[in-house]
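Record type: monomer structure entry
Structure origin: computed from sequence
Chain ID: A
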Amino acid sequence: MKRIIAILVLTLGIAFQANAQDVKTVALEQTKGEFTQKALTLKEGTYIFEISNKGVGHDVGFVLAPKGKVEAKDHIKNAYVTSLVKNNGKSTSKKVTLKKGEYVYFCPLNPTPQYSLKVE
């Protein structure tokens, strides 16, 4: 019985570790009126967006939306940062699963242009 429990615990540990490795972090930095990364190309998969505020002087956010659909109703809500990004701080999104296609990212609080994110 102890052996079965040990094997189960080991199997679950490996499964959790493999699942955690499937989530990649995309670090993006905002300065006054812009993101320093002007375009991104990613593979299909699950991502967490980490947004840095580098001296903007006020809180910033992050919006990810399908290209051509930038109204609030079309935003990918899980891509919103979990809390506003304070000046010289960082914040992250929840997990976001991206399928092949074209997206845009921007910050309406900074405000920034819309930048291209392509998923292959």
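Annotation 1: The chain has one domain: 24-119.
Annotation 2: The longest strand covers residues 23-31.
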